[in-house]
Amino acid sequence: MKSNRDTVSFTFNGKPLTGYRGEPIAAALLAAGIRTLRKHEESGNPRGLYCAIGHCMECRLSVQGKGIVRSCLTPLEDGMTVLEGQQLANEITGRKLP
Amino acid sequence: MKPKLQQTDLIIVGAGPAGLSAATAAADNGLSVTVIDEFPEPGGRMLGQFHEEQGHWWVGKRIADELIEKNRAQGVSIRCGVSVYGMLKVDQLWEVSTSHGTWTAPRVLLATGAAEIPMPTCGWTLPGVMSIGAAQVMTNVHYVKPGKRGLIIGVNVLAMAIARELSVSGVMLAGIVLPPGGPLAGKAALPRNNLQVLMGLSHLAPSPILRFGGKIAYALGMAGIVSSLFPRRGIKLWDIPLKLRTAAVSINGTDRVESVTLADVNAKGEIIAGSEREEAVDFVALAGGLYPLAELASVAGCPFIYTPELGGHLPLHSERMQTPVEGLYVAGNITGVESALVAMAQGQLAAASICSDAGVLGEDGDRKVVEAIGEVQRVRASALIQFHPGIPEARRKIYRMWQQTYEAGV
Ligand SMILES: Cc1cc2nc3c(=O)[nH]c(=O)nc-3n(C[C@H](O)[C@H](O)[C@H](O)COP(=O)(O)OP(=O)(O)OC[C@H]3O[C@@H](n4cnc5c(N)ncnc54)[C@H](O)[C@@H]3O)c2cc1C
Ligand code: FES
Questions:
Q1: Residue A51, ligand 2, Cβ within 6 A
Q2: Cα B229 to middle of ligand 2, angstroms
Q3: Beta-carbon separation of B127 and A55 below 8 A
Q4: CATH class of the domain defined by A7-83
Q5: Cβ separation of A53 and B293 shorter than 8 Å?
Q6: What would the DSSP string read from start to end of B45-77?
């Protein structure tokens, strides 16, 4: 068992949360009841973790100072500022959605 | 800026059972070894596995801890949180590009394991839908439940093993159902095919209870009209309803999973009109099966072969775990989907091969490799979990193909 784990503070989209040091950000967010990690770049639809082991890239979000990371592989650190993956302006993706 | 080069005798990509077993065996023979893995901790998929075997629990995490301890004592460098994305041979040395700089070595062992086959289903992009392996990793490795109540879609050995783990860990499951029929699901949506899968598992099953599930399937199969006899309500496997006459039509919700629409299916896997109903769940685990994770072998220039019994496309390799590319070796699930114990034996075999090719075993080289081959065969024959039928035959075919193309001096 992972006993004696330190509790650390972080923010997600500005909301203060706590989790265990070293657990993946996606696990800390799920434990806090947060499933949406990202808005699809083009459609803006909500997306969450899918594989939890770094294969699918569905869990991308941004961490201040690190850029865009896979949150299922990135260990939580004290004081992290985490933002959900953002929808891009339509001009960037280059496609008109219905 | 020129990247910093870090050189060792052997680079192993993947700190799962195959990679860690190979690392300690190679270090034992005096090679300097670096193991690279992108997961935050070593152990690979073994970290989340536990099975009941002959009255006791086989706990992967414990085996992983022992292997890690051995490696540390031998001075093997295990670098976690590092992703490998490129490989290039320059002047007899492999340059391995990673998220944290470049490593070089004359020999590289790829032990990258397996990945899950995606199972596209209506609504599968909703947060709360995940692969069955993700539910396992969240629950058993990170100790976070994937949700309050879930549904598993897809019947295969991984789904059954993980369903058992989830129920032991106190995660509520509404049941295990079939994927919706259609070109993407193929045979996986046919009730009869799934009964055959279960029957095939019965004598290999990891626990007496899975074996019991196989017996039920077998009894029903003996009755002749296989799937129409399967009770519509399903049967209970542990406390989980296994419903082989029910398919998931769609996963529903606005910004997270709220329910799944289920329907009864006939023996051909077709929806019976009017039988649709909603099952309230907050997570869904999709079980599409496993395939060898082998992109790096392709990047390194290794030819591939297609072997369905072993999970699909895999790098061509010899029984000694060599590939046709000089200095490139493979071990574990990258060579075909099998259990962690087989992966460990393959890791030791690859290490024997590598040490023999590196000339550090002297005259003993060949004997050690042959011994290690025998050990892989022994472990394979006694494996309690087999992902597909016909693995030993498929293996023999590959090694024959290797002998015909490479050892014949073509
Ligand atoms: C999700 C999942 C669940 C499974 N559950 C079971 C189970 O319950 N029972 C069972 O018997 N078998 C299970 N298996 C099968 C499993 O693959 C084997 O049991 C065994 O773990 C294979 O060992 P391995 O060493 O070949 O690979 P793995 O244990 O998968 O280890 C491979 C390692 O390589 C690393 N890696 C891969 N690519 C890179 C890269 N480019 N850069 C850096 N690191 C990389 C990965 O992070 C991983 O840690 C499961 C497989 C998966 C994918
Ligand atoms: S959930 Fe698949 S990469 Fe993170």
A1: yes
A2: 40
A3: no
A4: alpha beta
A5: no
A6: GGGG-EEEETTEEEEHHHHHHHHHHHHHHTT-E
What would be the CATH architecture of the domain defined by B120-286? Answer: 3-Layer(bba) Sandwich (3.50)
B308 neighbors B290 (Cβ within 8 angstroms): no
| Global confidence as pTM | 0.92
Q: What is the dihedral of CA A70, A74, A76, A79, to 10 degrees?
A: -70
- Dihedral sign of CA atoms B34, B40, B46, B52 in order: positive
Mutate to test the interface with A, among B59, B62, B125 (most CBs of A within 10 A): B125
Nearest protein Cα to ligand 1, atom 30:
B113
The 10s digit of each residue's pLDDT in B332-371 is 999 999 999 999 999 999 999 999 999 999 999 999 999 9
Tell if the CB–CB gap between A55 and B83 is shorter than 8 Å. no
ipTM, two decimals: 0.94
CA distance B190 to chain A (A): 25
CATH fold of B5-115+290-407 reads FAD/NAD(P)-binding domain (3.50.50)
User: Does the beta carbon of A72 lie inside 6 Å of ligand 2?
Assistant: yes
Collapsing DSSP to helix, strand or coil, A21 comes out as coil
Q: Which residues, in sequence order, are CB contacts of B400 under 8 Å at separation 6+? A: none
Residue A22 contacts residue B40 (beta carbons within 8 Å): yes
Low pLDDT (below 50) residues in chain B? 1-2, 202-210, 212, 219-227, 410
Q: Do domains B5-115+290-407 and B120-286 have the same CATH topology?
A: yes
Residues of chain B contacting residue A13, judged by C-beta atoms under 8 Å apart: none
Distance CA A29, CA A71 (A): 9
